[in-house]
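Contributing new records

If you add data, match the layout below exactly. Sequence lines come first and carry their own label; structure lines follow with theirs. Keep one chain per record. Anything else will be rejected by the validation script.
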Amino acid sequence: MARLAELSPTTKRLLKYLPFHGMPSKNIYDPRIIKFNLARSIVANYDYIFDRFVKNAELSKFEPLIGFAMKEKNTIVEKWPFRLKLQPGQPGAQEEFDRLLSGGVSGKEIYLEWKRTRM
């Protein structure tokens, strides 16, 4: 819910990519509002949610049982492949944002890599 706050860090960052020119209508079906809400997930950070999942699911306790553990650092695919890499204002940042927004990804996609810890 904090992400939805009018002046949250996510909203401030998103406004750098999708500035509103004039007041949006009160209509919830205004295309600018729909686009803004869809784009919110692209600029948000989900590390804290994933970390909470890892803790709550007690993934570290699986290693002794199955002989696999999560890698500390991915080596095959980026952990968050559809996360923005450039900051607003950097060369290519708007193009990167536009590409992710039009590509059908949410920014929440995560790839986990595992390592064998015993045979």
